[in-house]
Amino acid sequence: MHYLDNSATTQVCPEAAQAALFAMTREFGNPSSTHTAGREAKKLLDRSRASVASALGCSPAELIFTSCGSESDNWALLSGAENMKRKGNHIISSVAEHDAIRRSLDLLEERGFEITRLKPGPSGAVSADAVREALREDTILVSLMLVNNETGAVTDIAGISAMLREEGSQALLHTDAVQAFMKIPFTPKALGVDMISISGHKIHAPKGIGALYVRKGLRLKPMIVGGSQEDGRRAGTEATAQIAAFAAACEVAAPKLRENGDRMRGQREEIIRRLQADIPELRVIGGGAPHILSISLPGWRSEVLMNFLEAREVYVSKSSACKKGARSHVLEAMGLDSKTIDGALRIGLCRYTTQEDIDALCEGLKAAHATLAHR
Question: Which of 43, 66, 87, 208 is deepest in the core (most CB within 10 A)?
Answer without folding.
Answer: 66
